[in-house]
TrEMBL record:
Lineage: superkingdom: Bacteria
Name this polypeptide is given: LysR family transcriptional regulator
Limits of the HTH lysR-type domain: 9-66
PANTHER family tied to this protein: HTH-TYPE TRANSCRIPTIONAL REGULATOR YBHD (PTHR30419), NITROGEN ASSIMILATION TRANSCRIPTIONAL ACTIVATOR-RELATED (PTHR30419:SF8)
InterPro entries: HTH-type_LysR_regulators, LysR_HTH_N, WH-like_DNA-bd_sf, WH_DNA-bd_sf
Protein's organism: Marinobacterium aestuariivivens
Top-level taxonomy: Bacteria, Pseudomonadati, Pseudomonadota, Gammaproteobacteria, Oceanospirillales
């Protein structure tokens, strides 16, 4: 299965995209992720280089998602929710609180 540029994206990239989309400002997103604004700016530049497209339009009052940015932010948010749910499921399974439905495989 070829996943194209997505193979180069890291979990921190997805977190940053989702945080900027939610906060609307790079500085607020950086603070949410406990990184500096310059580090967040460098990371966003790296993501846009990997994707090959601008993800946000920069304005004086914040950042607005481009069409490609909206698609990426939507998927990033979904993947982060899935990873959170995966961690919860694994912890519950380790504690014996839940049985995994093997028929779902």
């Amino acid at each position: 299965m070829d996943i194209g540029f997505a193979r180069q994206l890291k979990l921190n990239h997805l977190r940053l995209i989702a945080a900027i989309a939610e906060q609307g400002q790079l500085g607020l997103a950086a603070a949410t992720l406990a990184i500096t604004q310059p580090a967040a700016s460098r990371m966003l530049s790296e993501i846009e280089r990997i994707v090959g497209s601008q993800l946000f339009e920069r304005h004086a009052k914040g950042m607005e998602l481009t069409l490609i940015g909206r698609a990426l932010a939507h998927r990033a948010h979904s993947m982060l929710l899935e990873l959170r749910d995966l961690a919860r499921d694994v912890e519950e399974l380790k504690r014996g609180k839940v049985e995994w439905p093997l028929s779902a495989l």
